[in-house]
Amino acid sequence: PSCHVEHAKSLFISNEQLMFVAIVDSSCKFHGVVSRESVMQCPENDNNSVETIMDTNIVQIDADKSVKSAVGKLMIREEKEFYRPFVILKKERYYGIATVRDLLIAIGKDL
User: Fold this and answer.
1) Model pLDDT, residue 1
2) CA distance 26 to 45
3) How far apart, in whole angstroms, are the C-alpha atoms of residue 61 and residue 63?
4) Exposed, middle or buried by CB within 10 Å (0-12, 13-18, 19+), for 78?
5) pTM for the structure as a whole
6) How would you classify the pairing of strands 86-90 and 60-62?
7) CA 86 to CA 32: how far, in whole Å?
8) Share of the chain above pLDDT 90, in %
9) Cα angle vertex 108, ends 65, 16, to 5°?
10) What are phi and psi of 60, to 5 degrees?
């Protein structure tokens, strides 16, 4: 969480396909997500912490639960939030970040 906006910006600049970055601490505790859009809108040489722009209202999915359970949690979001990412936790520690598109690809592989 003590990461600076400029560092996050460098991650997005170096990887054009990166849309979100999860913010975790050294013990893998999840704190929030910053989006490419929010980071790129910040002024140049922004030395503020990413905490100032990170989104902490992110759906959290337990890695040990079923895909059906994950879908159920995601479907209760408002329609305008449908394409926001969600995080996957395992034993309350950050495991990964994904989007609904990623989930649909995983489901499609099982068909």
Assistant:
1) 64
2) 25
3) 6
4) exposed
5) 0.84
6) parallel
7) 10
8) 61
9) 90
10) -115, 125
Query: Residue 92, exposed/middle/buried by CB under 10 A (0-12, 13-18, 19+)?
Result: exposed
Whole-angstrom distance, CA of residue 80 vs CA of residue 91: 29
At 105, the amino acid letter reads I
- 26: Cβ–Cβ under 8 A, 6 or more apart, which residues? none
Q: Which of 34, 12, 38 is nearest to 23 (CA)?
A: 34
3-state secondary structure (DSSP) of residue 35: strand
Amino acid at 93: R
Band of residue 71 on the pLDDT scale cut at 50, 70, 90: confident
Q: For residue 101, how many other CB atoms are within 10 A of its CB?
A: 10
Distance of CA 60 to the CA centre of its chain: 10
Complete edge-to-edge strand list for the sheet that includes strand 86-90 = 60-62, 86-90, 93-98
